[in-house]
Design brief:
Length: about 700
């Protein structure tokens, strides 16, 4: 990573300044938070500020803060160890085409210093330790030593001195730095000052003693560069005018570059979209604008202001369990308190970024008591509500919503699972493909709006992918009737839909589960009754053959072109859920015994295979071929219905037998013996019998091959 940063031709090297200022601001936040409980931490220096000092003569740029500073071990751990998880993630992201300016989001922002510097020296002092200097020249390892007076004033905080690369001297120019701070760091909550050199006209005939006096004053003030070194100039101007010559004197002054009035305290109507955007970038290190924002004030029994943002992309560690719980910075009456307050926004909204500034919370509140705090509960409720409102607003623009949904649909679905209060609102935000949606995603509202007359339920199917469900056997009848079916192909859909159950009084009905009732004409009903009687015995026989592999056998109303399918109980796992659970490495097996799908086999009485099977069974109830074919039908429908085969070899043996039949190979050797053992294991009637071998499939309908087809 270092060589990438050092050698890159990347054109946007300026981001280094934003990263270092942001680190300085974090360090100041940490100190200020500590000072709320123990004001003595400020004893060494009350001012909380960031200074930028260019030194053209030596070609260095220094960024200095009066924040918490680093102890010697901190310097080693925080700056010396590049083997952080973020490094790997950052490199992967870069290889995948991410922009280098994302570096700050991976927790390795400090190293961006090497975009512009050959050498970085970090002088740092924490209240609990002496001052140390960490030094590392591009690409080589680092050294640490105790600071000496030559290193400059030893005060609390961190001072980062960059020896700029030859071609990066532009970062010493006042204008360039001012523009950069304006662009990236305008909303930092501490004064950022730049040391600027000013030329002033000073009157020539200042008397000698005055000059001496002036020199002494400056020396007494020491190194304090905050004040102009020649202050008398102004005062002299007030003196009665005399004819005097002037000469040019250069002075160094600190000039504050940012307005620190927090943006969220301003009126929304006075804030330009660019300002929101700049603020968003400042608090998130994002290089792109946010997708949406919401700025609001809640007043009444309690009062707080908040500014929330939705990023355009999901962060690389969205569902990483160890990462920070959320991205909302909590302020109390403009004082930053913390940015990892767990109870300010629900976990499923952890991608929402922003600030909340409460008027009511006590300033010195401890982390522990925050968790129980009633005020915080109300804040959380409102922040959640407003976030969902913001998402609905995004949904007004199709393109934007597509982006949003791609990035955060999993979060919404997690919300459906977890957040009972907002479940309805969240379900309105869901989108799915369907049998009729083409390449567009549709909402439940869209679906209801174009339901067939008389249709009551919302039909959906779950499965591994759009391609897999599109052609599913379960959709045959629904498609034929022109009923739209939603595709739920994200594993999390299975969990979400279990909680949803209905939408605006329309029950959600799964196409792969029992209880799929379709509208039928009287004629259809009568036909069904007739078929039911006619197939009663076959159904019994099939159940007898398959034993406890299935719960029951019934006639199907959902398959049209296939001979059969396997459906699961309305409240148990679907085939897709079974697949998902099997894939979970740390799954507790005990659960699956209760939940594993109880399968019902549905036969299609209009399908030639089923018709012929019935005939064969009626001709000879004990025909061995019937058993073998029933097993084959069962196993193929396991596959078409989305289950996996418990014993694939057994299935393959049966298929091989059919292939042999097709190739007219009639042997009764080793293969038959193998078959016997295998069939014996499942309790299946020794498929078609070992010794009287292959069943005479070629009875009434022409050639063997046709039968196999
Ligand atoms: P990040 O800030 O995202 O954690 P960085 O690589 O920018 O990653 O910084 C690494 C760590 O070094 C920080 O987490 C912080 O602990 C420490 N650090 C960096 N700059 C400063 C600073 N100016 N003052 C105090 N600590 C700092």
């Amino acid at each position: 990573m270092m060589s990438l940063i050092i050698n890159t031709f990347y054109s946007n090297k300026e981001i280094f300044l934003r990263e270092l200022i942001s680190n300085a601001s974090d360090a100041l936040d940490k100190l200020r938070y500590m000072s709320l409980k123990d004001s003595s931490v400020l004893d060494t220096d009350k001012a909380l500020k960031i200074d930028i000092i260019p030194d053209a003569e030596n070609g260095t740029l220094t960024i200095r803060d009066t924040g918490i500073g680093m102890t010697k071990p901190d310097l080693i751990n925080n700056l010396g160890t590049i083997a952080k998880s973020g490094t790997k993630a950052f490199m992967e992201a870069i290889q995948a085409g991410a922009d280098l300016s994302m570096i700050g989001q991976f927790g390795v922002g400090f190293y961006s210093a090497y975009l512009v510097a050959d050498k970085v020296e970090v002088l740092s002092k924490n209240n609990d330790d002496g001052a140390h200097v960490w030094t590392s020249e591009a690409g080589s390892s680092f050294t640490i030593r105790d600071a000496t007076p030559e290193d400059g004033p030893i005060a609390r905080g961190t001072s980062i001195r960059l020896t700029l690369k030859k071609d990066q001297k532009e970062y010493l120019e006042t204008k360039r730095i001012k523009d950069l701070v304006k662009k990236h760091s305008e909303f930092i909550g501490y004064p950022i000052s730049l040391e600027v050199t000013k030329e002033k006209d000073v009157e020539e005939d200042v008397e000698e003693e005055d000059k001496e006096a002036e020199k002494e004053t400056n020396e007494a003030e020491g190194d304090d560069a905050d004040k102009p070194k020649i202050e008398e100039v102004e005062e002299e101007a007030d003196k009665p005018k005399k004819e005097k010559k002037t000469k040019k004197v250069t002075t160094k002054e600190m000039e504050v570059l940012n307005t620190q009035k927090p943006i969220w305290t301003r009126k929304p109507e006075d804030i330009k979209p660019e300002e929101y955007s700049a603020f968003y970038k400042a608090i998130t290190n994002d290089w792109e604008d946010s997708l949406a924002y919401k700025h609001f004030t809640v007043e009444g029994q309690l009062e707080f202001k908040a500014l929330l943002f939705v990023p355009k992309r999901a962060p690389f560690d969205l569902f990483e369990t160890k990462k920070k719980q959320n991205n909302i910075k909590l302020y109390v009456r403009r004082v930053f308190i913390m940015d990892d307050c767990k109870d300010i926004i629900p976990e499923y909204l952890s991608f929402v970024k922003g600030v909340v500034d409460s008027e009511d919370l006590p300033l010195n509140i401890s982390r522990e008591s925050l968790q129980q705090n009633k005020i915080l509960k109300v804040i959380k409720k409102n922040v959640t509500k407003k976030s969902l409102e913001m998402f609905s607003e995004i949904a007004e623009n199709k393109e934007d919503y597509k982006k949003f949904y791609e990035a955060f649909s999993k979060n919404l679905k997690l919300g459906i699972h977890e957040d009972t209060t907002n479940r309805k609102k969240l379900s309105e935000l869901l989108r799915f493909y369907s049998t009729k949606s083409g390449n567009d995603l549709i909402s439940f509202k869209d679906y209801i709006g174009r339901m067939k007359e008389g249709q009551k339920a919302i039909y959906y199917i779950t499965g591994e992918s759009k391609a897999a469900v599109e052609k599913s056997v379960f959709l045959e009848a629904l498609k034929k009737k022109g009923i739209e079916v939603m595709f739920m192909t994200d594993p999390i859909d299975e969990y979400a839909v279990q909680q949803l159950k209905d939408f605006e009084d329309h029950k959600l009905v799964c196409a792969t589960k029992e209880g799929l009732e379709l509208e039928e004409t009287e004629e259809e009903k009568a036909k069904k009754e007739e078929e039911k009687k006619a197939y009663e015995n076959l159904c019994k026989k099939v159940k007898e053959v398959l034993g406890d592999k299935i719960e029951k056998v019934v006639l199907s109303n959902r398959v049209v072109n296939s001979p059969c399918c396997l459906v699961t109980g309305e409240f148990g796992w679907s085939a897709n859920m079974e697949r998902i659970m099997k894939a979970q490495a740390l799954r507790d097996n005990s659960m699956s015994n209760y939940m594993v799908s109880k399968k019902t086999m549905e036969l299609n009485p209009s399908h030639p295979i089923v018709v012929e099977l019935k005939k064969k069974f009626e001709a000879d109830a004990n025909d061995k071929t019937v058993k073998d074919l029933v097993w084959l039908l069962f196993e193929t429908s396991l596959l078409t219905s989305g289950f996996s085969l418990d014993e694939p070899t057994l299935f393959a043996n049966r298929i091989h037998k059919l292939i042999k039949l097709g190739l007219s190979i009639y042997d009764d050797g080793a293969d038959a013996a193998q078959e016997e053992t295998a069939a014996g294991e499942t309790g299946a009637a020794a498929a078609a019998g070992g010794d009287d071998d292959l069943p005479p499939l070629e009875d009434d309908s022409g050639t063997v091959m046709e039968e196999v087809d």
